[in-house]
Write a structure and sequence with these properties.
Helix 2 packs antiparallel against helix 3. This protein starts with a helix and ends with a helix. It has 276 residues and is mostly helical.
């Protein structure tokens, strides 16, 4: 029930009590026949109070039960309102009889007390239902917060594991890449060394071949020089021999010519010497 309706019901109850008090102080009016039985009203109020008491124990149940209790409390308040209306009518009916008015006022006061009690009980049940609802909402909020916290922690744990896996995979890739680079560098170094070795061997072979060729050429040149020298010596020897032969022949020729000239001179001077 809204707060405005509660305050309005309380105001009406207070106004009814004031009117009943005024009725007690006023002069006894003309007697009229009471249309409603007071014991019936009391029995109805008692039944309403029992009805409200039965639902008081169920105020601590779950949220769905709290809604049902709130509906029951509304029904109890409606019943109390009906009883108040009936009590008011009863008080109006018995107000014309002095003795009946006093009795009716007493009974109405009791009904008012029962109505107040029922309203208090209904308010208490409403408050209990509201507390139960708030407690259930708070419990649900705490559970949701704990669940969210657990989910966030699980998510963070999974992200941490995934991040660690990614880092490990990246590190493994980097290690494999570095290993491959080192292996490639070693292979390139080995190939370069092998190539340098082959080139050195080839260069050494070329140098050896060139050296052998040079040595062979120098040897051939030396042999040719020796042969030329021998040939020159042979030619010089032959020329010297020929020169010696020519000189000997010239000498022989000169001696022969000298002999012949001497013979001629002797022949020419021989008769002259004989004549003297």
């Amino acid at each position: 029930m809204p707060k405005k309706a509660k305050s309005k019901a309380k105001s009406k109850a207070k106004l009814n009590i004031k009117k009943s008090k005024k009725g007690r102080r006023a002069a006894p009016p003309k007697r009229r026949k009471v249309a409603v039985s007071i014991p019936a009203l009391e029995a109805a109020a008692t039944a309403a109070a029992d009805f409200a008491a039965k639902h008081e124990a169920a105020a601590a149940e779950s949220k769905g039960a709290a809604e049902q209790r709130r509906s029951d409390a509304d029904a109890a308040r409606q019943e109390v309102t009906k009883l108040e209306t009936a009590a008011k009518k009863a008080k109006l009916d018995v107000a014309n009889s002095a003795a009946a008015v006093k009795e009716a006022n007493n009974r109405a006061a009791k009904l008012d007390a029962l109505a107040k009690k029922a309203r208090r009980e209904a308010t208490g049940r409403e408050a209990a239902a509201e507390r139960a609802r708030l407690a259930a909402a708070e419990k649900a909020r705490r559970e949701a917060a704990q669940q969210a916290k657990r989910e966030a922690a699980e998510k963070a744990r999974l992200e941490t594991i995934e991040r660690a896996k990614r880092k490990a995979a990246e590190k493994a890739e980097r290690d494999v890449a570095r290993k491959a680079e080192r292996e490639a560098a070693r292979q390139a170094k080995r190939e370069a060394a092998e190539k340098a070795k082959i080139e050195a061997a080839e260069r050494a072979q070329r140098e050896a071949a060139e050296k052998a060729e040079r040595e062979a050429a120098r040897k051939v040149e030396r042999e040719a020089a020796k042969e030329a020298k021998r040939e020159a010596a042979r030619i010089a020897k032959m020329e010297a021999s020929a020169q010696a032969k020519r000189e000997a022949a010239e000498k022989v020729e000169a001696e022969r010519e000298a002999a012949e000239r001497a013979e001629r001179e002797a022949a020419e001077h021989g008769p002259d010497q004989i004549g003297h």
